[in-house]
Specification:
The chain has about 475 residues and is α/β, with parallel strands linked by helices. It has helices at about 15-30, 55-65, 70-85, 85-95, 110-125, 130-145, 150-165, 165-175, 175-180, 185-195, 200-205, 225-230, 275-280, 295-305, 315-330, 375, 380-400, 420-430, and strands spanning about 215, 235-240, 245-250, 265-270, 285-290, 310-315, 335-340, 355-360, 400-410, 435, 440, 445, 450, 460-470.
């Protein structure tokens, strides 16, 4: 979403105003064309039709490459991610602060940009209240770049009103479920019903910053030796007990700062995702299929665990190329094909697989803190569509699994339709399927269906290990 600005930008590239403006462009691209109704808090109970946050940030980096320093990139990213994590709260407050709602779809030039700028400024005010004066001043400066500056006085009035009504607005926001939990109302209700004990902890985790975890390439180095390299580089980290190669960083780092990253010593992979490789139980010489493999994190982990004959599939050429890049960086080899795993006639050579990893596309509700736009772009009706695709994938892959072979079904979802209910339906269709025990390492001990909840050390995942009866 481009702003309607003067021919020569007046904002200093190192200013907060410049970062707010770039973040507003990104946020506007996500929230644009959302069906909003009256602009009150209830609007955030709907779903959006905007664009992907990561793609918008990449476009921002490219468009402003000559002026965005590394520090400013970090500021823009924090503003964009934080604003969207707290979108339900910001949307609620704007509904209380604006006399006339700013509706998406309004053809008045600059209204979407104005809304995005106000949301970013409200996020900054709530997270950095000590800098309130500077934030208001810089937001007003940024507003000068929208529609010839005609919204500057409005931005000033709204933000100062926010400060004057601080206690009242915070109390009202905490009484509203969408503003308090910062999720759409349908999402809150589904999580509450599916996870009645943990639902508030799950929603809180969704709004937190995600951990950064490394997977040590045990073909190159052991975890203890790599921890020593991190210590020498001044990076604080610790080994996680439930995954033998998972190292949690105390603070996220750019991969350029990680010792030996480009030499293949480690990969960035959430510790919850690192359970997939060991659960599939691969041994040397096995024929293995990773059916939805991009970007290749689990593919490469399987190859680090054992010398297997592995085929990695992905339906999109650009995503398949990322698998190749990760294989090359780690010095590993697999056959990579661009294909929809459901269309087995297009890629299968009639030789059955002894192990299959079915890391299926899903709503990604267990990793939403990494993709905060997903909360607002996703529709409740999307769940049924994912569930249908998952069932099609499972049925297709079952055909190519050898008798006695194992298939690991996994999602990064918390919704039962994609997890427990999906497995119940699969078992009803396939009498030759048996679910095996998976060791959870949580309070319930061993399980046949393992649901990991998002928490400080890992994201949310679901695992079931199936065996085809001989």
């Amino acid at each position: 979403m481009k702003s309607s600005s003067r021919s020569k930008p007046l904002l200093a590239p190192d200013s907060l105003a410049y970062a707010l403006m770039r973040a507003a462009e990104v946020i506007a691209g996500v929230i644009d064309d959302r069906p909003k109704g009256n602009g009150q808090a209830g609007s955030s109970r709907g779903a959006g039709t905007g664009r992907n946050l990561d793609a918008l940030l990449a476009a921002c980096w490219q468009a402003h490459a000559s002026t965005l320093t590394a520090g400013q990139r970090g500021a823009v990213q924090d503003l964009a991610y934080g604003t969207l994590r707290q979108y339900g709260r910001g949307d609620f407050m704007l509904g209380r602060l604006l006399r006339t709602p700013l509706q998406d779809g309004d053809d008045t030039p600059g209204k979407i940009m104005l809304r995005a700028l106000l949301l970013a400024a409200l996020y900054r005010l709530e997270t950095r209240p000590a800098d309130a004066h500077t934030i208001v001043d810089q937001a007003v400066n940024a507003a000068g770049e929208i529609d010839h500056g005609r919204f500057k006085s409005l931005v000033n009035a709204v933000l100062r009103n926010r400060l004057r009504r601080d206690g009242e607005l915070l109390s009202a926001a905490n009484a509203d479920p969408v503003a308090r939990y910062q999720h759409p109302s349908w999402w809150i209700e589904k999580i509450r019903l599916a996870h009645p004990v943990d639902w508030e902890d799950i929603l809180a985790a969704d709004n937190s910053h995600p951990p950064m975890t490394l997977r040590v390439n045990r073909r190159r180095i052991d975890a203890g030796a790599y921890l020593a390299l991190l210590s020498d580089a001044g990076i604080d980290a610790r080994l996680l007990p439930d995954a033998e190669c998972a190292i949690l960083l105390e603070r996220p780092q750019a991969v350029e700062k990680l010792p030996g990253f480009f030499d293949g010593l480690v990969s960035v992979q959430d510790s919850g995702a690192q359970h997939a490789g060991p659960l599939l139980d691969v041994t040397a010489g096995m024929r293995v299929l990773d059916a939805c493999a991009a970007p290749g994190g689990k593919t490469t982990h399987l190859l680090e665990l054992a010398d297997v004959d592995l085929l990695a599939l992905d339906a999109e050429p650009a995503r398949a190329a990322r698998i190749v890049d990760n294989l090359d960086r780690l010095g590993l080899h697999a056959e990579v094909k661009t294909a929809d795993c459901r269309d087995i006639e297009t890629w299968w050579d009639a030789r059955p697989f002894q192990r299959i990893l079915a890391d299926v596309p899903c709503t990604a509700s267990g990793v939403v803190r990494r993709h905060p736009d997903g909360k607002w772009l996703r529709r409740e009706t999307d769940i049924a569509g994912f569930a249908r695709s998952q069932a099609e994938i499972l049925d297709a892959l079952w055909r190519v699994l050898a008798p006695g072979g194992k298939m690991l079904y996994c999602t990064c979802s918390l919704f039962p339709e994609e997890n427990q209910l999906q497995m119940t339906a699969f078992a009803a269709r396939h009498a030759d399927a048996s679910s095996l025990l998976v060791r959870g390492g949580n309070r319930t001990g061993e399980l046949r269906q393992w649901q990991l909840m998002p928490q400080a050390e890992h994201d949310g995942f679901f695992y079931v290990l199936l065996q085809k009866l001989e």
